[in-house]
Structures are given as C-alpha cells and as structure tokens.
Amino acid sequence: MAAAGAAGWRQHVRHPITNGRRNVSIHGISGAFVRALREPRACFFAVLFALTAGLAACGGGGGGSSGSGGGSSAGGSGDTSSLPAGPQQQPIAASGPNAVAVTVNRGITGNVPNIPTVSVTICVPNTGTCQKIDNIQVDTASFGLRVVSSALGGFNGTLPLTTSNGATLAECTGFADGYTWGTVRSADVKIGGETASNIPIQVIGDLATSTVPTACSSIGPSQNSVQALGANGILGIGVAAWDCGAGCAISAQSSFYYACPNGTMSNNCANTAVTLNNQVANPVAHFPVDNNGVILQMPPISNNGQASATGTLVFGIGTQPNNAIPTSVQRFATDGGGNMTGTYNGHAVRAAFLDSGSNGLFFTDSGIAQCGGNLGTFYCPAKPLTLSATLTDKNNVSSNVSFNVVSASVLLNSGSNFALNDLAGSFGSSANLDLGLPFFYGRYVYYGLDQKSYGSGSQTPYVAF
C-alpha cells in the first residue's frame, strides 16, 4: 500500500497473556512465553503488535462467513452501502472532574490507525512537581500505567524508585510480539480531575539493555520505545486493580517482577515476589471516588472510516449524574481479567474480550481472504461482510453481537483515515475473539472493576454495552 510508506501500516493488538486470570493460546511465540501462559505470572495484558507486515486481527463473526475464501492479494470493494447501520450512541461532553477526552487520529508515529489516547499528568508523590504526558493509549484489557522513559525525559529521575529488599524493582511485561522492560516507580497520577496518589507505575526503557533477563528477552523483540509502542505509554484501565495480583505476591517463580541488586546497571536481576502495594496499579481503582469502573464512549463513524474521532472516558459507574448504567444494557460477568467465552463460525471461543488497545477486530476465519503484502493478515474480503458471534459470561448468560468487516486495502489506501470501525484481520489462536476498538465506535462500553477479590467492595468484574 503505497500511501503507507516503506514500512507499511502497523498493527497493534493488546492481547491478554495470562496471570491465572485468563488462559490464552498464542501461536508463534517462544518457549519462555508459553511457560508464562501456563503459570500464574504475567498479568493479562492486551498485546501490542507493531509488525511492519500489517495489522493483525482477532475479531470474530459467527454463523459462517461470506468472504472470498483464502487468497492473499489485497483488494475488495469499497461500496459499504449494503452494510447495516452500526450503533449510534454519542459520547457525552468531556466536562467535570470524572471525564476526559479520548482522541483517535494519525497518532504520534503516524502509521497506526485506531489508537485511542488521553493526556495523563504524572507527579512526584505528594508534591506539585508534575509533568503532563500526551498520547497515552487507553487500553481496557491491561492494568496499570506504563510510560516510555523518553516521553518523561529528565523528569523520570525525579520519580522515586520502588525497591525490593534494597534492590531496584523492575518489571518484564510480556506481549505477543515482544516485551517491555523498565523500573517500577511511585507517582501521583492525574487524569482529568481524578488523582490516584502514590501508586506504582512502570517506566519503560529506562534500564540498560544489558539488564534484561534472558527469560524476558526470549519473549521477542524489545518494545521499549515510542516508535515500537506507537504511543508515549499505555493506560491500563481493565477490570483488575493490579497488573498481576496474588500470583506475584506468593512466590518469585510466579512473578514477572525482578530485583536488580546493583540498580540500573545490574545484569543479574532475579525474579522476586512483590506485594500488592508494590505492583503496578490500575489508577482508577485507586481514585478516592469514582473508582468502581470506567465507561469508554466512542462516537459513531462512517463505514468507510474517517480521519479522526473524539470520544470520552468517564470514571465511575453509577457514582455521578453523568455515569449511570441503564438497565437496558447487556451485562456480562467476566473472570478477573475481563474474559468471557463464546462461539464464532460454529467454533468454541475460549477467550473473548472487549479491548480498546487492539486496533482491529481480531479473529481467525479461513473463509475470508487475507490482504498479504504490506497488509499481511488483515482481511481483504471481495465485498463488505456483516458477521456475528456469541458471547457467554461466567454465569452462562449468552448474547449475540454483530460487526462489519471491510477490506483493509480499501480502508487504508488513502493513507488519511485513522478512525475505522470495520478493520479486521487474523491473528493467533482460533479460540480467541478480540473485539478491538472498531467494536467501540457508537457504543458506551462499561468496565466494572473486580473489588471483591481485593477486599475493597462486593462488586465482581463485568463488562457491559
């Protein structure tokens, strides 16, 4: 696709690994990563893909597909007149202390569509020494704030390091296409008018490459830069309060945290158990109010896509006049990582999730042509498709969902549209259904935090729309 430049369009899929909350099978990854999937270690992170081959996808469609079947040449029709109208909810104004604007546009790297971002202010705990960081990706399938060190600049050195028995505490975050590595530091995190005081965050890429443990580097390439990440950081606001939980607190073998005894130049960092209060924390769960969940509201957009879109992230559910949850919404009880099960195209789905950190609908369907070339495993059906899947929650309550798929070649060919509600592709296990940001356009999507597991309330995790 000429408009995309030599590197092509880039894919981002924040696909959950596991920490005992979720069991996700991902193809084409290293033995060390497979081991992590089987252990209660790396928390269920939505995976970021930055492959130059094109966007991957994991969004499903049930009841059989009508794609062109197999194939690998980019193409397809751009006539979307046959597609049904999508959801039409409009976001509320991003006013008041519990709401902040969410922006989708060409982004900080200029070649990743469907990256929703907000601005976050980071402060030295209990001080007025702060720095505002723009272009932080909103990710509803991971937990905790992670900021690239280059975006912080010299301010990084002012944030207190977290230590473990006198050693610098670092974290290896595993993604399907690689890893992030960096220190854990304490900060006050301000988003809109809300503040999470003195919580652990991860600073990505502030440690020497020589410090990366073998078990971490064997996952795949480093994702420690803005260019690799596609944003200045990741704001994980899923249903969990911490990024690992009890597994990392129990034993070093179950932890993906590391103690580096000689600080930032150490090359003998070793796995260490980490108590909850030192684990990277979901800021929302640590707000003094409006801390029981979030609502991500994205506007409806054209089936042909558009240059940009502006939505609203609302903190709290049923805590303020602007965040009530109607009785008419479909509510799904999830596991501790936000997972459901379901079916797509007659096959069982072991892990279905709503993930704003994935920039496409990601699912496997051999009946739909893949684009190939610069667009890799993006789907390029000969004509637009309307597909469906069934979601089943932890209480065995099921509901059907539908979504559209339009040829990625058509959607991305102009090189000017970055908000796309029908971009899809194939990635990973056929047992996964990743309803990424395209699913969010025109919807209010609710995430109720797991308060019961952490003794902060009786609420169990759920998603709703």
Detailed description of the structure:
This protein is mainly β and 465 residues long. It has a single domain, classed as Cathepsin D, subunit A, domain 1. The chain has helices at 31-38, 149-152, 214-217, 226-229, 246-250, 408-412; strands spanning 99-104, 117-123, 130-139, 143-148, 163-164, 167-175, 178-191, 194-204, 233-237, 257-260, 270-271, 293-297, 309-315, 331-333, 340-344, 347-354, 361-362, 385-392, 398-405, 424-425, 432-435, 444-448, 462-464. The strands form three sheets. Strands 1-13-12-22-23-14 form a six-stranded antiparallel β-sheet, with no helix packed on it. It has a six-stranded mixed β-barrel with strand order 2-3-9-4-8-7. The longest helix has 8 residues, at 31-38. The protein is globular and about 65 Å long. Residues 66-78 have a biased composition (Gly residues). InterPro entries: DUF3443 (IPR021847). Residues 66-92 are annotated as: Disordered. Residues 79-92 have a biased composition (Polar residues). This is DUF3443 domain-containing protein.
Topology of helices and strands:
Blueprint: H1 31-38, E1 99-104, E2 117-123, E3 130-139, E4 143-148, H2 149-152, E5 163-164, E6 167-175, E7 178-191, E8 194-204, H3 214-217, H4 226-229, E9 233-237, H5 246-250, E10 257-260, E11 270-271, E12 293-297, E13 309-315, E14 331-333, E15 340-344, E16 347-354, E17 361-362, E18 385-392, E19 398-405, H6 408-412, E20 424-425, E21 432-435, E22 444-448, E23 462-464
Parallel strand pairs: 3-9, 4-8, 16-21
Antiparallel strand pairs: 1-13, 2-3, 2-7, 4-9, 5-6, 6-7, 6-10, 7-8, 10-11, 12-13, 12-22, 14-23, 15-16, 15-18, 17-21, 18-19, 22-23
